[in-house]
Specification:
The structure holds two protein chains of two kinds.
Chain A (H helix, E strand, L loop, with lengths): L7 H4 L6 E5 L5 E4 L1 H7 L3 H5 L11 H18 L1 E10 L5 E11 L8 E8 L1 H44 L5 E3 L5 E4 L1 H7 L3 H4 L8
Antiparallel strand pairs in A: 1-2, 1-5, 3-4, 4-5, 6-7
Chain B lengths: L1 H13 L7 H5 L4 H4 L3 E3 L6 E5 L10 H7 L4 E4 L21 H14 L6 E5 L1 H12 L6 E5 L17 H13 L19 H7 L8 H13 L13 E7 L6 H10 L3 E9 L3 H4 L1 H14 L2
Parallel strand pairs in B: 2-3, 2-4, 4-5, 5-6, 6-7
Antiparallel strand pairs in B: 1-3
Helix pairs in contact in B: 4-12, 5-6, 7-9
Classes of the chains: A alpha+beta, B alpha/beta.
C-alpha cells in the first residue's frame, strides 16, 4: 500500500487540488502536499498515524460524511462533489468539495479509495450571499403572510359588524352602482343583495 | 364567478400534479404504497422489519436483508421524507418530532399485518422504533438497534458528541450540498467496477431527499432527546455498537445498555456509522445469533 505514495502526482507540490488515497474505512494511506497544507498538518502526521480522514472534518461535516457520503460510496462505489469543511488544527475551517472513487486492487489485494479535494472558499462565499438573499425573501414572504392574515381577520370583523348593524348600509362605485348591500338595507328596500348589487341606488 | 371555478378545475386536472397537489393524489394510495413497503423471503424463520436512518432509504438494507431473506421474511419501508415514500406524507407539523415517524411505523406494521416482527433499525430509525415499541409493545417481538443514540447533544455528563452550533452548521452544510455545483444530492449513476450489481438496481433515486425536508428532518433527528424514553422499553433489545462511529461514540452505547435493562450490547469490529453497508457479514452474524435466541 505504501507504493501509493510513490505516485508522482502525490509528490508534486504544484498540484492545485488535494489528493488522498485511503482504505475502504477511510484510513489515510497517502496525501499530496497541497491537501496536507490545507489541513495545516504535515504529510507524515496524516499518513503515519492510522488516521481516518473523517477526523479532519468539522463536526457538522462528519455527520454529513457518515449519513450521506459513506452510504453512497458503499452502494455506488463513487461520490461526486460533496460540500464539506476541513477543521484545521488552529480551529479555523477550510471549505472543500470532495469526490471519491473506490477501486479494486487488480492484484486481488484490498480496495482503495481515491479522494480528490477542491478548494471551495470562493464558492462558499458566493453561496453565503445567495443564502442571505433567499432567507431575506423567505422572511419577507412570511411577513406578507402575517399581514395578509391580520387583514383578513379585520375584513371578517367589519363584515360581521355590517351584517348585524341596525342601519342600512349601501356602498356604491364611482358610477353610483351598488357594490354592497347589508341585511338591514335588504329588509328596508325589500330587495335581495343579488338583485341590488350592480343596480343604481334605490330611492324609497 | 362560475367560469373562474370551472377554470380552476381544468387547471387542476391538466397540470402535472405530482408535486403541486400531492395530497389529492394520495387519497387513493394505501399505507403500503405511500411508504413503498417491499417484502421478500419467507422460510421458517421470523419476520424482520427494517427501518433505515437519516439521509438514506430502504436500499441501504440490500446486503443484510438479502442475506437474511433465505431463512426469514424481510420487510422494508421508506420513512416519510425519504426514498420513494409519497412526498405528501411528510408533514412538518406531524413530523416535527420522531413521534410522527413512530405513528407511521405502527401504521406500516398494521397495514402489512406483520406477525410480531423483529424490528431492525439503524441510526435515527432506532429511536423511531423505540418510541413505536413503547406505544405498541404488542406489535413487536424485539428490537435490534444498529448504531443507536438517544441524543446527539452533549449535556453535562452525557457525551452526545455534538454542540448546538454544530447542528446549526450542519443545516448550512446540507443547504450548501443542494446548490447546483455540489452534485451529491443530485441523481448520479456511476459504474462501480467492484460491485456492478448495484449500479442498475439503485438507479438515480438512491438516498435523494428534498432540500427543505433534508434540513427539517436533520433538525428533528439531531436536536431531539429521547434519553427519558429508554427505561420503559417493554421488549428485549440488541444494541450493535460500531467502532469509531462519528455519530455514536462507545460512551453512548454504554449509556444505552445501562439505561435499558432488557438490552444486550454487542461491540462490532466494523468502523463508521453504517456497518450494514460496510461490514454486512458481521451484522448478519450478530443478527442470526440473536434470532436463534428469539425462535
Amino acid at each position: 500500500l505504501k507504493q501509493q505514495q510513490e505516485r508522482p502526482v502525490h509528490n508534486s507540490p504544484d498540484t492545485p487540488w488535494g489528493l488522498l488515497t485511503t482504505t475502504p474505512d477511510g484510513t489515510i494511506l497517502s496525501t499530496n502536499p497541497r491537501f496536507a497544507a490545507w489541513t495545516g498538518r504535515s504529510r507524515e502526521a496524516l499518513c503515519d498515524g492510522g488516521l481516518r480522514w473523517k477526523q479532519l472534518l468539522a463536526p457538522a461535516s462528519r455527520i454529513l460524511y457518515e449519513t450521506h457520503f459513506v452510504p453512497r460510496l458503499e452502494a455506488q462505489g463513487a461520490v461526486s462533489e460533496v460540500s464539506l469543511d476541513l477543521a484545521r488544527e488552529d480551529g479555523s475551517r477550510f471549505p472543500i468539495l470532495a469526490s471519491a472513487l473506490r477501486q479494486a486492487d487488480p492484484a486481488g489485494g484490498a480496495a482503495t479509495v481515491t479522494i480528490t479535494v477542491f478548494d471551495a472558499t470562493e464558492t462558499r462565499r458566493f453561496e453565503q450571499v445567495l443564502r442571505t438573499a433567499r432567507r431575506d425573501a423567505e422572511a419577507a414572504t412570511d411577513a406578507l403572510a402575517v399581514s395578509h392574515r391580520s387583514l383578513r381577520v379585520e375584513h371578517e370583523r367589519l363584515r360581521v359588524m355590517l351584517r348585524s348593524i341596525a342601519d342600512a348600509v349601501i356602498t356604491t362605485d364611482a358610477q353610483g352602482r351598488i357594490t354592497s348591500f347589508n341585511p338591514t338595507a335588504q329588509e328596508i328596500t325589500g330587495r335581495t343583495d343579488a338583485q341590488a348589487i350592480g343596480a343604481a341606488v334605490p330611492s324609497r | 364567478m362560475r367560469p373562474e371555478r370551472f377554470q380552476f378545475a381544468i387547471k387542476f386536472f391538466h397540470h402535472p400534479p405530482i408535486r403541486k397537489y400531492p395530497h389529492h393524489l394520495a387519497l387513493g394510495m394505501s399505507v403500503l404504497q405511500r411508504h413503498n413497503v417491499n417484502r421478500a423471503g419467507a422460510g421458517s424463520g421470523r419476520t424482520l422489519l427494517f427501518a433505515h436512518g437519516y439521509g438514506c432509504d430502504q436500499n441501504v438494507w440490500q446486503p443484510v436483508a438479502g442475506a437474511l431473506a433465505a431463512d426469514h421474511e424481510v420487510v422494508l419501508y421508506d420513512c416519510a421524507g425519504s426514498g420513494a415514500a409519497d412526498p405528501s406524507l411528510y408533514d412538518r407539523v406531524r413530523h416535527a418530532t420522531l413521534d410522527g415517524h413512530a405513528d407511521d411505523l405502527i401504521a406500516v406494521c398494521e397495514a402489512a399485518r406483520l406477525d410480531r416482527p423483529v424490528l431492525v433499525a439503524h441510526s435515527v430509525g432506532t429511536m423511531i422504533g423505540l418510541l413505536a415499541a413503547r406505544r405498541r409493545p404488542d406489535l413487536f417481538d424485539s428490537l435490534v438497534l444498529i448504531a443507536p443514540s438517544p441524543s446527539y447533544l452533549n449535556d453535562g455528563d452525557y457525551v452526545g458528541g455534538f454542540e448546538r452550533e454544530d447542528i446549526d452548521s450542519l443545516l448550512d452544510t446540507l443547504e450548501s450540498n443542494h446548490f447546483g455545483w455540489a452534485r451529491m444530492m443530485a441523481p448520479v449513476v456511476m459504474g462501480n467496477p467492484e460491485r456492478p450489481e448495484l449500479a442498475g438496481a439503485l438507479g438515480d433515486s438512491f438516498c435523494r431527499m428534498d432540500d427543505a425536508v433534508a434540513r427539517h428532518f436533520a433538525r428533528v433527528t439531531f436536536l431531539s432527546d429521547h434519553r427519558a424514553a429508554l427505561a420503559g422499553v417493554p421488549v428485549p433489545s440488541l444494541l450493535l455498537q460500531c467502532s469509531d462511529d462519528a455519530l455514536a461514540a462507545p460512551e453512548v452505547g454504554a449509556y444505552l445498555a445501562r439505561q435499558m435493562p432488557g438490552s444486550r450490547l454487542v461491540q462490532l469490529a466494523a468502523t463508521g456509522h453504517c456497518p450494514h453497508m460496510s461490514a454486512p457479514a458481521e451484522v448478519v452474524a450478530a443478527l442470526s445469533e440473536f434470532l436463534e435466541q428469539r425462535r
